[in-house]
């Protein structure tokens, strides 16, 4: 079904046909189908979807569409949807809606859910507590497998996942048992015999990126969230961890390009938000580049003597910047994947030293032959001599080594002092390396060319 | 348990204690504990782990440790481990081992598994077929819920996931039923009444990144892999999709920094591999930067007349490069998350045009005041005039607009013609923008300063 067909059928009031089609569709696809539909059509189509599917579809919609629907819905309709939604989705919804809609939502929640949601909203942003849901199956250690299966049958339909069940005793989490264990064990076995007591759990205040990394590391479907007493207060499921991991990579990539990260998809981000996310960094980097200007001014004499020297400035700066970026971005990613720690500092430095020597030498030799054979012999570039070529290539080699050194050390040091290493990527490294490469260049020029 | 304690206990032959501790540990943590242990100790400790846990631990180990163990193991031991491993892990193992070890593994596989694995190995690298596993539960449509639960109880223990079961009829996949449906439905209901027939599936040749994106989009635990006849040949589970997503982000990040991506963790990558992944790009970009040299040489006269002009070259190049990178990296990530398509080309261009005008104007104004108040009034930089400031700031504004235009269009165009958009990031954009900014600069200088 395409949007055009849907709109056509809506206009012809073919509600039976629409209902038949919509109610076999996956909620994710439904949300995509209804995307950008005008509010009245949206509401009309949405009302044709079965309750449970509708609630799930609703939680996959963009905030502006959710808002449009909530503004059209009666209180009874809002109640119905909220009753079918998981708490983590309701929390997401509340965080995205304007104040008046938030009040309507809160008014239509039953008292228990409202209390639970208020607790979740108090957890720090980006904490495990803020992304958890409270619908999970809890079991008692003295239950048998068949008791447990019966409980799942009774309450399971409203739980976000029943595949990991949590065994509690006076609120404390004492074990975990999977649906697989339950389904493949004898029905009279005790849960306490079956449960895994070496529990993977996260605390409510754990950073959500750490939580996502645990999913990645252990390949689990859900993780319990516990308070300081090891009482279970909720669970995080793998689909939310997936989202956190993707968002995290997006944020790192943005920071590496000197852009303030932003949750909104590109096409939904306004021009001013994009501007605001970029201009501070551009200004900061532009002002930092003033230093390179001073360096050039202070070597005015050398440059006036030979424009040939000036011609190599961009190439030297770019190559230095690229070399540094390669090292820094590689190290930043390895840090964020937990592949290197601060204790690896010297191993990383030694490795990058060898790599940079190889790169620097290769580039210098290649460039020397290029200048000699192309620029001098073939093009007869005026004022260009083999001594200038030597200065350029020596600078190149030294710059590459320094650039890779700075590129690999800054992110590790940044992380050590609690800074975000991702910021120490191309733009910053480039600015620093530019200044250094110019100083190296002019000093070699003065020494070797006597200017 | 730490490695030191483990080695100590091994030396004291406290096997009972070691066995007790190891057999409550999570296989992921076990693999981490055994990491980098000398081969004889590794084998000794490994032999104390229970069969099933040992096999899982084995699949989480680094290839060099797996190889060490396989070289020590008897054929009987290898058979035991392989019998407990899922086919996707066995395939990974075969891909990582040298030829002689591969032969020993193949010799110790039972005939059916060997046949299955040979089929998987024939699927293209990076395809869904190459990452799938063949251990899944299949049901028949005429079974009842209790038949299905019985089947799961019988065969489930050897299946990678039992939480999604596949309903087949003469090999064809006709429906999907979740363990949750089975557990929460009446035991005499027919599977055919219960199953979801609107099936999410991937074909064997589907790119694994597309498969991972489907997990991300639909939040499912597993996806069936089907052949051209819609017969199910295997499943991909969410933990493998997790890995693909992380690897994909790592690859994109590497490409954005002009590094050839590489699967090996940083500290395990040799100096020559790092060198080989970086030097081709550095050489290519260095040679491309030759163009900027020519541009400078051709404006020799203007530069000789005023070193003040030269002093602004690095700042102009850097700011242009940074502006372009911001746009390109933002667009590359949005492309890879599926947030923008080729059809959004003009929307993206219009958005970036407005953003770049705002950025360009802000930077130009800020820079003009900085040159006027600091460089001229305060520092009395020789040869620097307000007309030069005007040339610099006009160039800045124009360069930023051009840079963002190039930055946002190149990745989209690259994707359209089947290139990897991630390559169109900072390094390439910078090289192109450098040349353009110099041409703009010198032309403004000639026109406005009459040189």
Strand coverage percent of chain A: 5-15%
The rounded distance between the terminal residues' Cα atoms of chain A is: 75 Å
Tally of domains of chain A: 3
Helix and strand composition category of chain A: mainly alpha
Round the Cα radius of gyration of chain A to an integer and report it.
Answer: 31 Å
What is the second-level CATH architecture of the largest domain in chain A? Orthogonal Bundle
The oligomeric status of these chains comes to homodimer
Q: Widest sheet of chain A: strand order?
A: 1-2-3
Number of helices of chain A: 24
Biggest interface and its residues per chain?
A: A-B, 115 and 115 residues
- What is the approximate shape of chain A? elongated
CATH superfamily membership of the largest domain in chain A, which one?
A: SLC41 divalent cation transporters, integral membrane domain
- Low-confidence spans of chain A: none
Helix content of chain A: 55-70%
* SSE pattern of chain A, N- to C-terminal: HHHHHHHHHHHEHEEHHEHEEHHHHHHHHH
What does the largest sheet of chain A look like? 3 strands, mixed
Name of the level-1 CATH class of the largest domain in chain A: Mainly Alpha
Say what the CATH topology of the largest domain in chain A is. Tetracycline Repressor, domain 2
Q: Would you count the extended β strands of chain A for me?
A: 6
